[in-house]
Amino acid sequence: MSRLSELDLTIRLAPAVPRAVTQVSVGLFTAATAILFYTALDRLTVGDGAPFALCFPAMMLATLFARWPAGALSGLVGIFYAWAYAFPATAGFRIPDRNAAVTLGFIVVAAVITVATAELFRRAVRRATMERDQEIADRDLLLQEIDHRMKNNFAIVTSILDIQRRRADGDAAEALGAALNRVESIARAHRHLYRGAGQGDAVQMRGYLGDLCSALSDALLLRGGISLVCSSDEVEVSRDRAVSIGLVVNELVTNAAKHAFGGRAGGTITVGFRQRPGGCTLIVSDDGVGMPAAAAPTGIDHGLGSRLIPAFARQAGGTLATESGPDGTTVTMDLPA
Predict the structure, then answer these.
(1) What distance in Å separates the CA atoms of residue 16 and residue 6, rounded to the nearest whole number?
(2) Residue 281: beta bridge partners?
(3) What is the rounded distance in angstroms from the CA atom of residue 139 to the CA atom of residue 126?
(4) Is this model's pTM higher than 0.85 or not?
């Protein structure tokens, strides 16, 4: 439907070409095309064909492409040609008899009905398209308003957590910092989802994980010899799944930064997101000292993360696997399509 409305040549060619010129051109072109097509077919058939037959589709196309004046002109030219073809011996195109007059009357009525029907259809399509465009504009405005309010809400929550973290110390400050990182992870997924209203329920993982890892590097004060490296394929993931993946990354990177290097001055934490046949794979690894045997099955220590990471993985629809040794730890989460 919307494609038909885009084919209105009187709008598409304006103001470079005046509307009347477009309508006359389209009307004459469709009529000439119908005449040429009929002439070619008539030469391939035995006996006289129906010279009026192709006038009607020509009128309909002219009306759809350039409104009713073009359709009326196309019909007038086509009927004039067909009449001259059917009664070539009639001087001045006079009506030879009553039957011919009745036939001409039926053809004219049918032409008027054809042009009127095509014009009504064209207007209905245009009206429906305008209503659809208005609905899309209203939806985008609503999404922008929701996005703005959500950003404000996230900003308020993170500000409160950050204030409390600065006032606290010890374990309380650490817990508030972890909560702050989790909220910011969700906020980043939200920003990537609504970046440009109306793009659908999908998050581009390369930009999202890159932004998240950059923020984690700042928040965890990874300076000097400890670095966080992030890479991702160009993959679109649904909003809810992206949030869960981001939370898993947040917990694993935080855990590695706290425990993986055991006092070492240097090391690398690597985050990778790869597309594979049948799904995707998230890999978070470090080149630290490895994990205690008790923590190895889950890939995390026995704090709050031991409950959060498996829960976030289940929300993402993924399965976790951990490999740990003296050369470091690798946690893999397989995500089916």
Answers:
(1) 17
(2) 274, 334
(3) 20
(4) no
